[in-house]
Amino acid sequence: MSTLSDYTDCIKRLLIDIGYRDEPFPAYDSNYWGLFHSWMLEELGPTSTWSLKQLSELEHAAGGIVERAYPCASLQLKLLYAKLTAIAILIDDSLEDEAVHAEILQFSHRLYLGHGQENGMLALYHENMKELSDAFADDAVLRGLAIVPWINYIDACLLEKVLFTTQVRLDTCFNFELDSSAISHSARDSPPFADADALAPNPHYLRSKSGVAEAYAAGIFKASKEQNIPLTRYIRVLPDLTFFIEVINDILSFYKEELAGETYNLIQLRTRSLSSSGARGSGVDEEWTAHDTLLLLCDEIRAATYRIDRMLRLEECEAKMRGETGNVDIDEVDLEIARQWRGWRDGYISWHFECRRYKLSPLKAMIVGEEEVSGS
């Protein structure tokens, strides 16, 4: 990153170009937050060693993303996604506890054999996956998209531990974070490679392994257990949608990562990959820089968002919602899809500005100016 101004200008241009709307913060939902708070204290908290302050921050992050990004969702779906997100973050944090790590190593094996989870945190995780599976019961393919990533996430965390947290005797120690939608992994030890650049050629592989983007994407078009939007109406956007979910998080996480001096995240890994390939960038000696990667990712996100909007006919649907003359072939299913996609794309971005974890609140006025806000 060259300067703070470079970063804010880059993000501001992206958000203007994709038509981001800074919608007002939703009214407090006492039912949702009351139930989630009770569950955090009474069920999840006792399975961990986290303090009340840590649990409060976890509740803020996990509950907030669901509140903001799924404005059309039922209480049932909101709570399930919030609970799974909270447990996933807690699992990631527990990898350094050797006793818990031993249980996590057996999670998938026990799941495949049909055995119960002996660890309380993992038992809660499995229980909520089963409840989410029931909510998606009417569509086997969509159910797979919603459930399997939560299973794969466990193995991805273990893979990251093998790749990034095994202590070895290297000249340089690296600190890094791989951040996914609301889920992150911070390693304090050096990677187990004589040449750490061995990781650089496939940064998106590493990123996608630790993300649950498909699960979050499936939830966009399933506002309630009763809603059954045909998968064929939006399946074409899923590759771009999962990319959007992952990379929006990466670029909006980058500021706090730079403040912390972290070097193992998608942007830094991809920078190293492109630099080692000989790409020419904006550096003093035309070397490829992290800012060049940020600009590249913003271009890719911009293109992916345009494709999603076009395939989901977002502009046409919103024109019809406003009562403007438009294509007569827009039906109620199109409108449902458009409303739920718009709710996610704007709410997900807004959550990053509002969540304390990302430290973006002081920058929001610089990025989301009055002109853009009033244009919403």
From TrEMBL:
Gene3D superfamilies: Farnesyl Diphosphate Synthase (1.10.600.10). The keyword Membrane does not apply. Keywords: Lyase. It comes from the Eukaryota. The keyword Lyase applies. GO terms for molecular function: carbon-oxygen lyase activity, acting on phosphates. Belongs to the trichodiene synthase family. This is Terpenoid synthase.
